[in-house]
Specification:
six-stranded mixed barrel; 51% helix
């Protein structure tokens, strides 16, 4: 009889439990799917790095030889080293098609390419080339491909022995190719013998390093700096190498979202489960009294009602988990859009599966236990009698007769019903606040990203064409660019690797010498339209300043490649979002060092004409227009914006489920009152208004409360993103749009609930044991 009664009651309580199942399923889906993104991205990347033995450090310099190679290998904490030569090349027939070539030793043991087709290097003129580049340019294994070395003009005729992908070129960009485009900017690996006639057999410009497990990379960097001296240009760690680490960088940007948003749904699930079980047990008091009178113990009765929660856990968990892997695949496809990866499989995150089950179990079982505990403390006789109504007291508004007496019947009815069910009001407002927070956060993130891109395009990047100059450019040559017919303005910049020493720290960063006044390529997103560089100090990016532990006014020591001297410089300013260090040309000249810019920024009224003209100059290494730069920036933040619509969808589900669940409860609780009103002559439309106005009031309050919470959450998420510096910039329209969307969800629920009014059985509803 015990479980037969359970099955019978389950039929009548299904509609109430469905909403809890849906909320639990959505929470599980969000947690498992979003956690699956980080798990799979990290798993795939780390497995790829391990199998291909990717480097931990890329050490770039000039004139490295085998002695340097041996000295580096003796540094404590270094596991393995591999010297090589990195050089740029272009197609012999098409100058706009370029490659990064890596001349490697015969026994390549680091950054090993993943061979898609073909065989590894075996002859001096073999090349393993990017499969995407080969496909776009009609190359196959067995073809010959002629390239011209950019630095020397020498032509190499190479035999394509393999088509490959590379762990260090997953997001293949350069100073002149800021957006991955493997059709026009590829990569290839050749034997070091192919360049022996140019560089010799004992000259390299790069050393790749792997470290032992647990080694301190900062100490290794410091020892490398001491070991290589003035030959060193830059040390690039894996996490700073955008070509290799972009996938993990994108994944890290959504970790905060993975943690925060599922918790909102679990919290609402707990509230709804508690409310549902409280109503369920309150309506089953007579049944509980009967069970007690028949001799069933409290433990058996508790298990009886906890089984409802067990069903919610099982159904919610299964329904949430099943589509999670597919959703992870959809989000990861957006993350992998600009990443060149070998075939991979999307798997469930084992830890996410366990954690989501534990949280779902604790939320549902825990709230059901506390809801049932109170009823079990009563005697059978007390349980079998109807629960006495709560002692009502006049509300504050009722104690103000001049106001209360002026209110109409409908308003008084709605107000009293709201105040009588404070727990329902609280749960509903919390749910709607969560919905508003989610929707506003989604729109706010989208607005902030769009604002950042727009301001970057219109305020920081005012040029039309970025021109990369080679190392032999003369003053007359680079200045000639500014006098071309269609060029309206120009700005120049010299970039080099340098070491910056503070009192206790050392950083190897890019050091840029700029024009005295910046007006085409600026540094500070929140600064003036034109920026006057300081003439007596250095500007540091905020990340560099943080790593050096310096503030404006502090002094740092600068050491340049090929120069044994240390140059003291005062930190004039720290700019958020800037990268490395910057000084003006005037200040640079006071140091007595030569100025040879390697980048020119041009403002033009005819982009294509100027591009074609500039690319004909021998001293130009490459060009990139602003549109390509902005495309690269948009790709960087794609991972953030890819979840915007997902959050809006889940926010709508949250609002719908909460309002529907509590609306159904309210309907059944008030069914006798509503039937009485119909008997008294109220029309269905009037009765519907009395029932559903509460939802609109709760929605309005939730929308208001959701505004500051949504804004705060946007700030927290944007503050956790390290790859770009984003400020909160929520458009006024987005506040109204988020509120309107939340209100639309409430109206949809009201339409569903409104149809229930017509189904009221007045005679049956008015029957009572009283």
């Amino acid at each position: 009889m015990f479980w037969k009664n359970f099955r019978r009651e389950l039929i009548f309580t299904t509609s109430r439990l469905v909403s809890v199942v849906v909320i639990a399923a959505v929470a599980v889906l969000m947690f498992v799917a979003l956690s699956g993104n980080t798990y799979n991205a990290e798993r795939i990347a780390q497995q790829y790095f391990k199998e291909q033995n990717v480097a931990d450090l890329w050490v770039t310099g000039v004139g490295f030889d085998r002695a340097d190679f041996r000295n580096v290998s003796k540094i404590d904490g270094i596991k393995d080293v591999q010297p090589r030569t990195a050089i740029d090349a272009e197609s012999r027939d098409f100058a706009n098609i370029t490659l990064a070539l890596y001349a490697v030793p015969d026994e390549m043991n680091m950054n090993i390419p993943y061979i898609v087709e073909g065989e590894t290097l075996s002859r001096s003129r073999d090349i393993m080339i990017s499969d995407e580049f080969a496909r776009a340019n009609g190359l196959s294994v067995g073809d010959f491909y002629e390239v011209k070395l950019t630095a020397t003009g020498d032509v190499l005729k190479l035999y394509v022995c393999a088509l490959v992908k590379s762990p260090e070129c997953m997001h293949h960009v350069s100073g002149t190719n800021l957006t991955p485009d493997l059709a026009s900017y590829g990569f290839g690996y050749i034997s070091e013998d192919a360049l022996a006639h140019l560089t010799g057999r004992n000259s390299y410009n790069q050393i790749c390093v792997t470290a032992t497990d647990g080694a301190d990379l900062e100490n290794i960097k410091a020892e490398l700096s001491d070991c290589l001296g003035t030959k060193l240009v830059n040390i690039l760690a894996l996490e700073d190498n955008i070509n290799a680490y972009e996938l993990l960088e994108l994944t890290n940007s959504i970790k905060t979202i993975v943690m925060v948003f599922p918790l909102i749904f679990f919290a609402v699930a707990a509230l709804i489960m508690f409310s549902t079980m409280s109503r369920l047990i309150e309506n089953a008091r007579q049944t509980i009294g009967t069970f007690k009178a028949l001799g069933y113990g409290d433990v058996q009765i508790m298990c009886y009602y906890l089984f409802y929660a067990v069903l919610v856990v099982i159904l919610g968990y299964i329904i949430g988990v099943l589509p999670a892997r597919a959703l992870s695949g959809v989000v990861l496809s957006a993350l992998f859009g600009s990443v060149d990866m070998p075939p991979h499989e999307i798997l469930y995150s084992p830890s996410a599966l366990v954690i989501s089950f534990v949280i779902t179990f604790l939320v549902c079982i825990g709230t059901a236990y506390f809801a049932a505990k109170g009823a079990l403390s009563e005697t059978p006789a007390e349980c079998m009698r109807p629960k006495p109504p709560k002692k009502t007291r006049k509300t504050l508004l009722e104690q103000i007769p001049p106001v209360w007496n002026r209110l109409g019947f409908n308003t008084k009815y709605i107000f009293r019903n709201i105040m009588r069910n404070k727990s329902k009001m609280a749960i509903c407002i919390v749910g709607i606040t969560g919905c508003m927070t989610l929707v506003l956060t989604a729109l706010g993130i989208n607005d902030s990203v769009s604002s950042f891109i727009d301001r970057t395009e219109t305020k920081l990047q005012k040029y039309d064409l970025m021109v990369t100059l080679n190392g032999t450019v003369t003053e007359a040559q680079y200045k000639h660019l500014g006098y071309l017919p269609q060029v309206e303005d120009s700005q120049y910049e010299m970039t080099m690797g340098t070491k910056i020493y503070s009192r206790n720290n050392l950083e190897t960063v890019y050091f840029r010498v700029t024009d005295d006044q910046l007006h085409l390529k600026l540094l500070d997103l929140n600064g003036p339209e034109t920026y006057d560089m300081p003439v007596d100090g250095v500007i540091l990016g905020d990340d560099t300043a943080k790593d050096l532990a310096v503030m404006p006014g502090d002094e740092v020591q600068i050491k340049f490649t090929g120069d044994n001297r240390y140059y003291p410089m005062r930190v004039s300013k720290i700019i958020r979002g800037a990268d490395g260090a910057y000084v003006s040309k005037t200040y640079w000249n006071t140091l007595g060092k030569p100025y040879t810019p390697n980048t020119a920024y041009l403002k033009t009224n005819d982009l294509e004409a100027v591009r074609n003209r500039v690319e004909d100059f021998d001293f130009v290494a490459g060009t990139e227009d602003k549109a390509a730069v902005m495309t690269s920036l948009r790709n960087q933040v794609k991972a953030i914006t890819s979840i915007v619509y997902l959050l809006i969808l889940f926010g709508g589900i949250l609002a719908f489920v909460v309002l529907y669940n509590l609306g159904i409860m309210s309907f059944f609780e008030q069914i006798r009152s509503l039937a009485t009103l119909q008997v008294l002559g109220f029309y269905d439309k009037e009765t519907k208004r009395l029932l559903l106005t509460e939802n609109i009031i709760f929605t309005a309050v939730g929308v208001i409360l959701g505004v500051p919470l949504g804004k705060a959450l946007v700030g927290a998420i944007l503050g956790s993103i390290e790859m770009v510096k984003l400020d909160v910039a929520i458009a006024v329209l987005s506040y109204f749009a988020a509120g309107a969307l939340t209100l639309v969800f409430a109206v949809l629920v009201n339409r569903v609930l409104g149809s229930k009014i017509k189904s009221i059985d007045m005679l049956g509803a008015l029957k009572s044991i009283e």
